[in-house]
Amino acid sequence: MTSGIRDIEISKQILEKINFESNNLSKPITIMHVCGTHEYTVAKNGLRNLLPDNIKIISGPGCPVCVCPTGELDLAIELSKRENVIMTTFGDMMRVPSSTISLFKARAQGHDVRVVYGPNDAVELARKNPTKEVVFFAIGFETTTPSVAFELINDPPSNFSIICTHKTVPPAMDLLLNLPNLELSGFLLPGHVCAIIGAKPFELYAEKYRTPMVVGGFEVNDVLMSLYYILRQTIKKEAFVDNTYKRIVKREGNKKAIQYISDVFEPVDSVWRGIGMISNSGLKIRKKFEEFDAVVKFNVKIEEKIEMPKGCSCDKVLIGNIPPQKCPLFGKSCTPRHPIGPCMVSHEGACKIAFSFREII
Ligand code: SF4
Fold first, then answer.
1. What spacing in Å lies between the alpha carbon of 351 and ligand 1's midpoint?
2. Most buried among 84, 90, 293, 344, using CB within 10 Å?
3. ipTM of this complex prediction, to 2 decimal places
4. 341 lines ligand 1 (CB under 6 A)
5. pLDDT digits (tens, 9 = 90+) for 164-178
6. pTM, two decimal places
7. Which UniProt keywords are given for this protein, alphabetically ordered (predicted)?
């Protein structure tokens, strides 16, 4: 079922179809994706320059590291400074600037901050260090949430806890489709997220906003085919959720993973860095599991902060208001080696991707 997804001859054929159909558009269209891996495919393959002039593809808030709020990051740094704490997180979080320092700098100052590949590694660390408190800084969209839920369900040791900053993608649709100065004609939906929750949660937004949406995979022809499907819906004045990633994504999603998530977490209003509060877009640990909630265990508070570092335009990049290259700091004072904003840190950040592929727009 995967033959052809990287075949350049097929890419050319889909591009021809897109070019042909684009002549039927009554006005230029803008399609947003909300996934760092889609941005990677778009930039790596130079798709923006291959599409006709009347089809623009922009990047939305698809990088969980980039939208992780400063308040939670500040808390992770503060806890990492405690004598008996081992702070653990994904590698991408290490260099994200907080309102003071980064976790990377906290480690350089001698605090015990460790990179793990997943929550299971953090649980293992807690088992091996029973006299320490091991905290996992849990970030990510629906793709990473089930593995965290799985660990909490399966009796982790009592010296394990998490800072929960998990976010959910569908509630962000309301905000994105109401942004001033940005008329979105369609969404390329994130295949990884939909592999967990299915395509169904997006249906109400396609209908409510009369906006075509297509679930897409991550190979070049997955993305091109999805763009073509969005284009066809636009021309036919249709608006529904289609799926070009049927080899992985089912309408109903992965029922087991969905069950894990809902057993452990409940929806809560959540702050997205650079964007603000989005109602019901976050996850909170249910009371039944609160002994593993670092906020409860350490009796601390999280401050609601959305600000970006001074001079950084990540807030505009994250909602597709400007491309990374239009930030005055891009490639000058802000580079992957010396990132100023979170979008230049993560492999899923639009600025890092644009810089890595020297994307010219
Ligand atoms: Fe932020 Fe750097 Fe991107 Fe500018 S180039 S928006 S400072 S991450």
1. 6
2. 344
3. 0.99
4. yes
5. 999 999 999 999 999
6. 0.93
7. Iron, Metal-binding
